[in-house]
Amino acid sequence: MFSKRLFVVIAIVVVLAGGTALLLSIQINTGIQASRIVYVSAVKGSSNSSLVKDGFQPKEILVIIGINNTVTWTNDDPGVIHTVHSDLPEFDSGFLDPGRAFTHTFTRSGTFTYHCDPHPWMVGKVIVKEK
């Protein structure tokens, strides 16, 4: 009888300890939020303002510092070079060949407008907020 009772107590302790470890693991893993990247595309045909209204899609994005404050712009317009150039001296991709990307991490809050140098009708906006 004693060994059966000891076995049950040990089993309960193991289950509780395992459950506590699992709970701690879940809290640790969900307590740390990894930064997510936000993607913006210079879409196909964006070099022709009569074909494409918004060359950068999405045209406006909201990012939160520490959550998703890294933005990657991709040139998805075959055969055409684009740039991602902020209106203030915040970031400048230089020329992006088709299929190339440019990434910038925002570290301060504010509203950052940008454009494509060769195609000035291509404009966008990044709104950056604190947590």
Description:
With 131 residues, the protein is an alpha/beta fold. It folds into 2 domains: 1-32; 37-129, Cupredoxins -  blue copper proteins (Immunoglobulin-like). It has one helix spanning 2-31; strands spanning 37-42, 56-57, 60-64, 70-75, 85-86, 101-105, 110-115, 123-129. The chain has a 4-stranded mixed β-sheet, with no helix packed on it. The protein has a 4-stranded mixed β-sheet with strand order 3-8-7-5, with no helix packed on it. A hairpin with a 7-residue loop joins strand 7 (110-115) and strand 8 (123-129). The N and C termini lie far apart (58 Å). The model is unreliable at 6-33 (pLDDT under 50).
Q: Give me the side-by-side strand order of the main sheet.
A: 2-1-4-6
Uncertain segments are 6-33
Instruction: Name the structural class.
Output: alpha/beta
Tally of separate domains: 2
Number of helices: 1
Strand residue percentage: 25-35%
Helical proportion, percent range: 10-25%
Specify the CATH class of the largest domain: Mainly Beta
CATH superfamily of the largest domain: Cupredoxins -  blue copper proteins
Number of strands: 8
Q: What are the secondary-structure elements, in order, as H or E? A: HEEEEEEEE
What is CATH's topology name of the largest domain?
A: Immunoglobulin-like
State the distance separating the first and last CA atoms.
58 Å
State the major sheet.
4 strands, mixed
Based on Cα principal axes, name the global outline: elongated
Annotated CATH architecture of the largest domain: Sandwich
Based on CA atoms alone, the radius of gyration comes out at 25 Å
Query: Average pLDDT, to the nearest integer?
Result: 82
